[in-house]
Each structure stands twice: as C-alpha cells, then as structure tokens.
Write a structure and sequence with these properties.
heterodimer; A: 187 residues; mainly alpha; 3-stranded antiparallel beta sheet; 7 helices; B: 934 residues; 31% strand; elongated
C-alpha cells in the first residue's frame, strides 16, 4: 500500500471548519454536508476542509488532541510504556501533516505540535523496529501488536514480509533435510 | 481628609513584601521575596540602596539604626541602617520567621515563626530570649503592647493569643481567625497592632476596646495605627486601603489599589502624614497628604501624653488585628465574647469586624455607626441602617464586547462579524472582520480617536469615542455598503455629552448618550429623531426596524438591578411596543447580553446565564428559554453569547473556561447550545414532549411578527413547524390516552387544529374510548362553529395584515381541493388587502442584495396577481360559506322551492357543514393511518 493511499483514507476523517461563506446543505454520495453558516463551526471531511482552506473560504479548527499539552502527555506515556499506547486518532500522523502543511496559520503552536507528533512517531517506529528485531531474532511464529495505526503498519509491512520471506528461503537452504522448506520452495 | 494616591512603582519581584519607615521618616524601607531590602529616599527615588540579606525576606523592622530582617535561612539578622552592614544574627528558628516587630523603645524584638514559636529577644543581648509556646500552627503576626508587658500573636491555628512576656504564659486566647496550614495559605496575614497611646477616658493605660464596622468584600490583610493613635489604617486582600478616625469611628480615607492586588505591607510615616504600602506583586505605593488632619492631631496628642510614655518616638507598633473573613452570622457571638474578655485582660485591643457587604456603601455604614457613642463600648455593634443595601448600578456596555480596560478586546462580536480593538504600546488600532467575506473584506483602522464602543451590521461599522477635555465625543460611521465614493461620516456630539451605547439597524443608527438622549441617524448620516431616555442607558440593540433600549429604572437593592426596557418600532408603523416595563433578571444578577434573534425577536441574557426571549403571543412577556450555566462544566465557566437563532434553534456562544468573556487570542471557537424551556419533569416523556411543544410554539412566534410587519417569511418553515406542533400534540394525546387520562386528552385536543381533532376522534374510537370520542366530536363541532362564527367578523375586525400570513400561492391550490372551505375567502380577501398594502417596505441595500441567505429580513415581494382577480370585486368581503352559498343556492332552491330566505340559509349551513367535514376526513386519512401505526 502506498503512503499516499493511506493519506487518501485519512482525508475522510472529519474536521471542524469555520466557513466564511454561506451555503445550504450539500448532498454528496458520502453523506450530507453543511449547512454552512459564516462564523459557525461545521464538520466536514479533511479533503473538503483543505480545499476550502486553500481557496481561503474557511478557517480550520484543529482537532482536540492537536494540543501541545495533550501531545506532551501522550509522548511521555509512549516513552514510558514498552507496548504501543493508544493514539488520539488512527490517522494522527497524516492529519498532522496535512493540517500543518495547509493550515498552520489556524493552529496555535504549529511548530511545537509538529515536533511532538514527530517525537511520538519516532518512538513508536523505534518500538516497532525493536519488536520486529526480537521477533526475528527469537524466531517467533507470531506476534501481537495492538494500537498500531495504518500508516505505521504500512511503513514496515512490505519490508518485513519480504525480509521474512528471504530469511525463510535462506534458512530452508541451510537445512536441506527439512521437508517443509522444500514444499514451500516449490510453491 | 483628601489624600493623593501616587502611582505605584516596581519595588521587588512579585511575592510577599513588607514596608516600614525609618525613625526620622526620611527613608522608606522595603523588603521582598527577591531577598533584598531597599532603602528609598522617596517614591521617586530611581536608585534605591539595596542590601541583600538572603534568598527571601519575610519581614523587617527598623528602629534606632538597627534593621532586623527575617530571611529564608531561618535566621533573624541585624543590619546597621542606613549603611546596611551585617551586624550579627539575633536568633534562629527551625524554619523561617514570619513576622518580626520591635517594642516601643526598640530594646526588644519579637519574632513569630513557622515552627509555631514566638521568641522575644533583647536587642543588646541576644542570649536573653523568652520563648512563648502554645500556638499549634505557624505564627502569622506578633505585636508588643505599648507598656512592653504583654505580647499578642496571631497564628494559623485560628487563634489570637495574648502573652505575659515575663512569665512566658498565655493570658488569653481567642479563636477569631480561619484556620489554615501555612502562612502562604492563610486568608489574611492578620497583622496585629496595639494602639500606641491610651485614650482620654482610660488613664490606666487601658485603651477602650472598639470595633470599627467596616464592610469589606475581602479580608483585611494588614493594619497600622497612626503615630498619634488616632487613626487606623488597613489594607485588604483586594487592594482596598482605608483609614478610620478611631474616636469618631468614621472612615476618613478610602483608596483602591490601582490594580487591586493584595496589600501586604503598610506603614505610617512618623509624622502621620503619609502611608507607604506594598503589595504582593512587589510594588510600592504611597498615600500622601493625609497630614491635614492627622498631623494636627499628631502634634497635639503627643504633647498631652508625653508624661504617659517615657519613650515617645511616634512610631506605631505595627499593625492591628484583622480577622479573616468571618461569616456575618458568627459576628455577634464573637463580639460578645471579646467584650466579656476585655475587663479580664484589661488590655487595649482593637478589632475590625468584618462584614460581607458592598464596599461602595461603606461610607453610609460608617456614617451610621458614627452615631454610636464612643463610650458605649460593650454595646453590640450594628450599623444603624440595617435594611436592604442599594446595588451599584451596572455600567453601560455594548452587548458582545469584552471589558474596555483590556488591551486586546472584542469591541463587538455579532452575527455579522467581529470588531477587535488593540490598545497597546505600539499600536492603537481596530480590526473589523466579517464572518461572511462576501459582505465586505476585512478592515484595519488606526484608532486615533480612541473609540471605545462599536457596532457592526451588514451595511456599516459604527464607532464612538468618549469626549475629552478638548475634544467632543464623536460618532463615526463607516458606511461601506454605500454606493457612492464617500464611505464615511462623523458627527460631533454637543460638549459634555458622551456616547455610552450605540447600535445599528437596517438603514439607521442609534446612539444613547450620557445626557439621557437617544439620537437616531440615518445610515447615510442624516440626523433623525431624538428622544429622552427615562434613565441612564445600560445598552441598546437594533434589528431591522426595531430598537431595544434597556436603562436604569431606579436603584436596585441587595444586588438586584432595576432595569427598564423599551421596544420601539420604526418604519411604516412607528410605535412603542414595550413601554418601559421592568426587565426581569434573575436574582442578584445583571444584564450581560441584549439583542435580537436573527429572526427579530428581542432576547437578553443575565449574568446568571439565563436566556430570555420575548413572547409576543403572551402580551410581550419574557420567557426563559435556556440556562447556559447548565451546560457549563466548571463553576466559574461561562458562555459568552454571540448570537441567537430561532430557526434553526441555536444559541451561538463561546465557551469561556474560568472567565466570563473570551480572550482575543487564541481565537475562540463558537459553540452551539440548544434551547431548553425550564418546564417541570423534563426527564419524563410527557415533560419532554410538553417542552418540545411549547418551545416550538414560542420559537415560531416570529412568523406572525414578521409577516405582520411586512417581511417575507419562510412559508415552508412555518407549515413545517405547525405540522411538528400538531404531531407533538397528537403524540401527547396518545400518551395521555394510554395513561387513562381522558380529561387531559380533551385538554390537549383543544390545542389542536380542527383537522387533527378529527384524527384524535379516530384514535379514540379505535382504542374503544367512546366517551372520549363523543367529547372530542363535540369539541370538533364547536371548533367548526367557531371558525364559522369568526369568518364574518374576521373581515371587519382583523387587521388586513392578518391575511398576508395565509396568503400564499399554495393556499390557493389547497383551497381548490378543500372545496368550500374558508381558504377561498381568505385568498380573495387578502388579494383585496394586498392591493392596499405597500408592495415593498424596505429597499434592499447593496449588501443584502448580494447575499442570498444571511439576511433574515427580506422585503415583502409584490403579491402575484392571480387569475381569480376578475370576480374579486364581486366577492369582496364574503365568507367561504357565502361563496359556497352563491354557487349552491340554485340547487337548494331547486330541492326546496318553497323555502323562505332564512330557511334557505339554514339549510345551506347544514349542507355546508357536512360537506366540509367529509372533505376533511378524506384529506387526513393518510395522515391518520401513519400516526396510528406509530
């Protein structure tokens, strides 16, 4: 899966905007949006929010979790725990990136938030690598990872699977007697 | 005693501070939490001498060139003064000392500490110490009596104790204060002060015990006697400085700290003409010019008492008792206790009794108490006037603005946009921003005139500034929707008249002034009518052709405001709709927002968060529709209103955490609250439906008003609302049927329209309630009769405007299917009346023309000419029945050729009735089936 595809999915998340125009309800396949009243917050998908923002038709209200204090808390928790902690949004990385790139003027302390989210991401990816490492070194058959987001899985999926495949092949070559390995090879 | 409060200056970093004068009164000496003692030659001394004595200094005392300080290293140190050289350590505690004081002669120092002990140390031989143990909490404050025999101390354990110094024993103790666990947590520093001199009638050095009735909101923090012993000064938590004349018990001086910070240090100049004080923010201030009366007494009294005191150096022993906020209920008991104790101790005591009240009216209090003869010491202390206290009238304000003293504030936030005012060092500017950028682009104006009030509409921005000595108060209007090139006008008000409130309507502007005049202007700047207001204005609001004025009707008492309200209507029918009736506020609240809903119904909110809406159908009464505080999470959270909409039902407001109004940054977000009528038992199904029904009825009142004042209304919305109401009625009807409440069912049926009653009859008979069905059919008949009876009258009595409500294109279509129903008449009649009506009352301005949705007021469109016009002359002023009769007379006559004219009509009425009833049944059959299924 391409990261851009994950981002595309993230764009379906709902975000609050404050429009500066007036428009009746609009009826889309994905559901009805609006009505848009100038100055009154309304929920729209991120793709529309960004589109309107780029046309200077609205201000984006950052999601509740996009707040320095809350993110700091999450970061500390993430660092303290060995396992993955629940994240504020299943698309936290994508949303941060999208909103901060397009609407940083509407988000207070945008730079700090960017750093914090990056910190959280780095911590989680490090954990992921670490667990992949122990998974491989201990030659486990299965592992359980909770609270991973799609983007995080996506970063490691193709690489990890290919690697495992490769390693499996190498291993089965090392042990020519193993019948299971051969069966696999022929497939 | 007029005195001058000099502007405060920075003394120390923020935190606890203390202040005193040197013996000669030449220097002011302060200490603070930055660990420095500063010696100021005067308040204007820009280079005070600093002595660093520790990390923090808690207290200081100065006498005979020895400066004693209590520092954070748990010691009490001596420094020489004014050189500031260290001169040894006087004593140590296990924790820091909290307060130190000299005795009168300067031979001893008393120090109270956080380790619960009080030590009395000889100045010249620090090994001679007396320790006073007995308090069970950190000591707040200590003081010597003038004769050096006793010592009083206050502690966080809530007690004030008097000790005999020589014997190191506690003589007495009073539980006067509120308990706390540490000095920093104590409500008040509870500084004590012994009156420096005996007074006239107690020559055995017994000062009279007296109390000063003072009404404070806040606890008194520090007190100090004037050197002459005649005056008592006190500083409170809230920054109030008060000086009393002790003998007459009059308040002679009252000053407010310029920022309202807690006063934590207070000292009299040895001459008695000046008071230096410090606050918890580390600032130093001086009250000057107290001399006029106090200096005279300080020169006379010392002379007459020189023989009483060996050492008369005119220095007050610091500070008197102040008591932490005690409940008024506790007061009398305490006073009695204290009074009983006085003979036993035979000691001078003073006490400031605290009373919750309003500080603004303390003067009245004091004046009243002055009647109490000074000799009547033991008499319980009550102010003579014990009745309700007048409330300070609330100031004029702009609804939707934040307080004017803020540097960055909202001058207006309404449904059109936001006006922000900036007034800081580099910039004095106004930003105007529109919610809908289609109205106008954002504007940035330099505020050279110093505008303080603003309003914003789809057409213009209105600004006004108060007058100064040279310049008159000005009203400025930026009429951005003007089609010519001159987009701005300005008007000077007459000298001495200030704009206090202003508002914009459609095509007009209004300004209420300090001269109790309301001035109207056209939006282009033409001066229009002006009229007098019955009282000082609180705020005004405009919408369309309506103007709402709220003013002070009189003085309110006990926290209530007495406000009056006027609702005026301009335009075609100029009239006063509400004639200065009282505005119903919640108990002990004031007005916090006033305005109109987007649909034009007056609405206001009081400081308790209750939203009230004008109920035009109930004789212009105010109905509470929501309590915004119910939606708050915290106790100090509030909602700051920015707009009210009836359709959709929305209260648009900004949630403010821990304050009443939002800051400009970060940009606050608008939240939407629902309406909720405070009906009883809204948790039950019945209560919920009742609430929904009456809310719907109330919030759709505006249709009637709008159409009657000639605006176009949303017909669809109106019929939708009516349908919703009838559905709710039917549901309630079904519910009460289920609960076997047949009487109640009939009551509900009375609220229904005739069509729905038929439905109710069906429901009743299906559920085998024949008695109910019978009653309902009687009711239906009655309703039909009423309709019939009303019809001929309607034409003469009802205003022609009434018809416009029903006069719709769809009405015509319906009338065809409904056969001979009264619709026909109405349509035709209203055509008559519509031709009489002005076609367009309001000219649409440029900006409203651009917008398709936002303006809720649309000018009345010319009525479409219908095809039925040709016979309109003939059927003018005829009822549906008459029309039907015209058509059917021939048939009736054919059936009964020998009938008299009256009999023909009787027969016709009979037929007409059955016909219409049938029609109704057919029409509502589908509706009925659906509802019954539900």
């Amino acid at each position: 899966m391409d990261p851009s595809e994950v981002e595309f999915l993230a764009e379906k998340e709902v975000v609050k905007i404050i429009p500066n125009f007036s428009l009746d309800k609009i009826y889309l396949i994905g559901g009805d949006l609006g009505p848009f009243n100038p100055g009154l917050p309304v929920d729209v998908p991120v793709w529309l929010a960004l589109n309107l923002k780029q046309r200077q038709k609205c201000r984006i209200v950052p999601p509740e979790w996009m707040d320095v204090e809350k993110l700091e808390e999450i970061r500390e928790l993430e660092r303290k725990e060995d396992t993955f902690t629940p994240v504020p949004s299943p698309y936290y990385m994508e949303l941060t990136k999208l909103l901060l790139n397009h609407a940083s003027d509407n988000i207070p302390k945008a730079d700090e938030i960017r750093t914090l989210v990056k910190d959280i991401w780095d911590t989680r990816i490090a954990k992921l690598r670490l667990s992949a490492d122990s998974f491989i070194s201990q030659q486990e058959a299965h592992a359980k990872l909770d609270n991973l987001t799609l983007m995080e899985i996506n970063t490691t999926r193709s690489f990890l699977l290919d690697t495992l495949n490769c390693m499996y092949k190498l291993r089965s070559n090392l042990q020519p007697g193993s019948s299971g390995g051969k069966a696999q090879d022929h497939q | 005693m007029p005195c001058e409060r000099k502007p405060m200056r920075y003394g120390h970093s923020e935190g606890h501070t203390d202040v005193c004068f040197d013996d000669a009164g030449k220097y002011i000496v302060t200490c603070g939490s930055d660990g420095d003692v500063r010696i100021w030659e005067s308040l204007d001394d820009d280079d005070p001498k600093s002595i660093n004595v520790g990390e923090k200094v808690y207290s200081l005392a100065l006498k005979n060139g020895k400066l004693v300080t209590a520092a954070s290293n748990n010691t009490v140190q001596i420094h020489t003064f004014p050189e500031g050289d260290p001169d040894g350590i006087l004593t140590r505690f296990t924790t820091n000392a909290t307060h130190i004081t000299y005795n009168r002669s300067g031979s001893r120092v008393a120090a109270g500490s956080s380790d619960f002990m009080v030590k009395v140390v000889e100045m010249y031989d620090s090994s001679q110490q007396k320790t006073l143990r007995g308090h069970t909490a950190p000591i707040l404050s200590v003081t010597f009596d003038p004769k050096d025999e006793f010592l009083a101390s206050a502690s966080c354990d809530g007690s004030v104790a008097v000790w005999k110094i020589e014997e190191q024993t506690q003589v007495t103790s009073w539980p006067l204060l509120q308990k706390s666990n540490d000095v920093i947590n104590a409500k008040s520093l509870c500084r004590l002060a012994w009156q420096p001199k005996a007074s006239f009638f107690h020559l055995h050095l017994l000062s009279p015990s007296f109390s000063i009735p003072c009404s404070f909101h806040q606890a008194i923090n520090v007190v100090a006697w004037s050197p002459c012993g005649k005056f008592l000064a006190a500083g409170s938590i809230g920054g109030l400085l008060t000086v009393w004349d002790v003998e007459s018990k009059l308040c002679v001086e009252r000053q407010k700290h310029e920022k309202g910070y807690t006063v934590c240090g207070l000292a009299w100049h040895p001459s008695g003409g000046q008071i230096a004080y410090t606050d918890t923010e580390g600032c130093l201030g001086v009250l000057d010019g107290l001399s006029s009366s106090s200096s005279s007494s300080s020169t006379t009294t010392p002379a007459s008492y020189d023989d009483l005191f060996d050492d008369d150096d005119d220095r007050p022993m610091d500070e008197g008792i102040s008591e932490g906020a005690r409940s008024p209920a506790k007061n009398p008991g305490d006073e009695d206790d204290d009074d009983d104790l006085i003979p036993a101790t035979g000691r001078a005591r003073n006490r400031s009794s605290l009373k919750q009240g309003l500080d603004k009216f303390v003067d009245d209090d004091d004046a009243g108490s002055a009647i109490v003869p000074p000799a009547a010491v033991a008499a319980p202390l009550r102010p003579v006037y014990d009745g309700p206290m007048p409330t300070p009238p609330q100031k004029a304000f702009q609804p939707g603005s934040t307080p004017a003293h803020l540097m960055h504030r909202f001058m207006m936030w309404n449904s059109v946009g936001i006006v922000r005012g900036y007034n800081d060092d580099q910039d004095n500017a106004i930003d105007v921003e529109f919610h809908d950028t289609a109205v106008h682009h954002a504007m940035h104006l330099t505020n050279s005139l110093g505008h303080t009030v603003a309003d914003l509409s789809q057409e213009a921005v209105l600004l006004a500034c108060p007058g100064t000595d040279e310049l008159a108060s000005k009203l400025q209007c930026l009429h951005f929707s003007s089609w010519d090139t001159n987009k701005e006008w300005m008007v000077d008000l007459p000298k001495g008249e200030d704009v206090q409130a202003l508002c914009l309507g459609q095509g007009w502007a209004a300004a209420a002034t300090s001269a109790l005049i309301l001035r109207l202007f056209s939006i282009g700047g033409v001066q229009r009518e002006l009229f007098s207001l019955p009282g000082p204005v609180v705020c005004i609001a405009g919408h369309g052709e309506q103007l709402l004025v709220v003013y002070h009707r009189g003085t309110g008492f006990d926290g209530e405001q007495a406000l009056g309200v006027q609702l005026l209507q301009f335009g075609q029918k100029r009239r006063q709709v509400i004639h200065g009736e009282p505005l119903p506020l919640s108990r002990k609240s004031h007005l916090s927002w006033l305005g109109f809903t987007a649909e034009g119904t007056p609405c206001f909110i009081d400081s308790e968060g209750v939203v009230r809406l004008l109920n035009r159908s109930l004789g212009n009464m105010w109905t509470p529709v929501c309590n915004t505080r119910d939606n708050c999470k915290g106790k100090s959270d509030h909602y700051w209103m920015v707009g009210v909409h009836e359709n959709p039902q929305q209260l648009r407001c900004i949630p403010c955490k821990g304050s009443r109004y939002p800051p400009t940054l970060p940009r606050p977000a608008v939240a939407v609250l629902p309406f909720k009528l405070p009906l009883c038992q809204t948790t039950t199904e019945k209560g919920q439906m009742e609430e929904q029904y009456w809310r719907s009825v109330l919030l759709h009142n505006h249709y009637g008003f709008l159409s009657s004042s000639g605006y176009e209304i949303d017909e669809e919305g109106q019929s939708q609302a009516q349908k919703e109401q009838q559905e709710l009625l039917m549901k309630m009807f079904a519910l009460s049927c289920k609960l076997e409440r047949e009487f109640r069912s009939v009551e509900l049926a009375e609220l229904m329209t005739q069509n729905v009653v038929t439905l109710a009859i069906r429901y009743a008979s299906r559920s085998h309630r024949m008695a109910l069905a019978q009653r309902l059919s009687d009711l239906a008949l009655e309703k039909a009769n009423q309709l019939q009876g009303e019809e001929p009258q309607e034409e003469e009595e009802e205003e022609p405007l009434q018809y416009t409500r029903r006069n719709t294109g769809s009405g015509l279509g319906r009338s065809g299917s409904a056969g001979g129903q009264n619709r026909v008449t109405n349509v035709l009649d209203s055509m008559m009346s519509s031709s009489k009506k002005p076609t367009a009352l309001l000219s649409s301005s440029g900006s409203t023309g651009k917008l398709n949705k936002t303006p809720f007021l649309k000018p009345l469109a010319p009525r479409p000419k219908t095809k039925v016009q040709h016979n309109s002359v003939y059927v003018r002023h005829k009822s549906g029945f008459q029309l039907w009769l015209e058509d059917n007379r021939r048939i009736i006559l054919a059936d009964n050729p020998d009938l008299e004219e009256t009999d023909v009509i009787k027969e016709a009425i009979g037929r007409f009735r059955t016909l219409s009833a049938d029609d109704r049944l057919v029409r509502h059959l589908t509706h009925l089936v659906r509802l019954e299924a539900a």
